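User: For my dataset I need records formatted as: sequence, then structure tokens, nothing else. Please produce one.
Assistant:
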Amino acid sequence: MHKTIYIDIDEEITSIVDGLRNASAKEVVIVVPKRAMLIQSIVNLKLLKKEAERLKKEIVIATQDKLGKLLVEKAGIETEQKLENVSGKEVDFNFEQPETDSIGMELETQLKGKNRLENIGSQEFFVEKETHKIQQNFSNPENDLDKKSPEKLINTELVAEAGISLEKKKSRFSFCSDKNIKKEFDSDEMIKKMDITQKGMGLEINLKDNKIKKKSEKRKIFQMGVVEEDNSRSQSRVNKLEKYYNNKNNLEKPEKEFSVSKKSWKALVWFGILAVLVIALAAAYMFLPTAKIKIFVKTKVQSIDVDIKGDTSLSETNFQEGLIPAKLIVREEEVSKTFNATGKSGSSSQKAHGTVTLYNEYSSESQPLVTTTRLLSSDNKLFRLIKGVTIPGMTKVGEETKPGAIEAEVMADSSGEEFNIGATTFSIPGFQGSGSEKYAKIYAKSSKEMTGGGKNGNEVIVISESDITAARNEIAQELKNSSLENIKKDAGESMTILEDAINLADSTYVVSNSEGEAVKQFTLTGKTSVSAIVFGEEDFKKIASRNLLKAAGGSEIIADNSLKIEFGKSEVDFLTGILSIKANISGRMREDVDLDILKKGVAGKNEKELSEYLSIYSEIEDAEIEYHPAFLGSRVPSSEKRITIEVDSK
């Protein structure tokens, strides 16, 4: 059982879709006339097919238009040449046969009777003349011939144009006898024998408008003209035409000389300016307007859990096994920092101590110094070496001579805060008896102040155990942070680093001073080795999106910027170079809208037509349109290049 729908030649796709939706049968046959708008656009046919699939209906298009059938088949729609070829019975068949045939037969009978009555009183009344029927389609029914005017059309240019028109459409004209046997005729011979009049002559054309109203559609019925041959009148007409052309060719029109006044020139200039402005405005209206259409598409949220492996041995993504390329990064990290000592000591005698550098500018030979060697500061504060040292001799590098130098620890000879002196120069009193040169050229310098000196009962600041522990914890955290930051730099911005995929080796720490030493500050240095397995963000998104689309099924796609990734607990094996990445993937899914087809469909439509057209797409919830410039905005531009369509997901 099927439903038959008859459409007009200029019926819009929206009207056809409404008819398809209202059809109660699952199979619908659409009868389409030749050159109908529906079968001249592959876009309309694809939209019709898509809507039929959405409604779960089967459609068949019956048409005799050969080119149209090719497009219908290309769009994937079944087609038949005749309605009779469609199998099955029709439901709700309520088509009224047009009254074209009866009206044409009635008019033909009237014409025959009229022609026969014209010959009453002559011998030709008993001889039936051969009449030729010429069927011609008229594009404009308003151009009816005035039956009241008996004046003949003798304009040769019109006759000539009629001849050209007849010759172009020669294959569409035929003479018919009572048995409807057709034979071709020569257009040139026809023009010579035709007597063109508006009424009562050899060529008689009657146009009658007949309105048949069916489903609110207007159909135009055009009648047939009858041409009667009259040899005597035709020959007279040919003679007049030949005489007219001979007189016309012999006439010579003299050339006229004329001059243009200033006023005329001004008028021409203003007319030209006005014409340019009109053309410019027309061009602006045709080429400047643009339209930006924003459509809102329905979406639904889809979420899945994934376990994707990152492998350092891969160079490209393996979608079937869920593997992505990964990269192993190894680097050494070192952090050093100075801390303040906070410990306190209540010892009764404290001697200031510090570090000095001993210089030998006297000889190239080394100079040994024993323990407790005296060093006298510039302000006469006496210090002694804690350990014996040997000062290297001078060395020559090129033309430059460098003194020997060595560092040594010293302690004040007596306790007291006055020995907490700043950086200064020390002399060695023991070299005073060896000559002034040696005494002056073997000396010592301090770059930092001496600390720890105090009197009986005074507390001094020392390095405590808690100071060293706090310093180690701080250095350990900074080692971790700097390792992560530097690994990110080494990996690049396109790579993703998970905290679970970073391994910090056991760190080593070095303290500049020992616990309990009376110093205000100390330095702690930490060193470690860090390893990490990183992977590409885009590689992970590709395989995650593929799994999400597979889980959603159908023809849906992921809406732009809606993909969300939440990483879980990951497992890493640095020996095999494999990282197991666990994550939750979610995204908003929507139907895929073909924007190219949509552009073709909306081009040239006003807002009402645009709204009707977009209603065909069930996945589109809403739409917004923006014209530029705004004052020209009333219709979507006809050019697809000046139409921009954006898809937004709700």
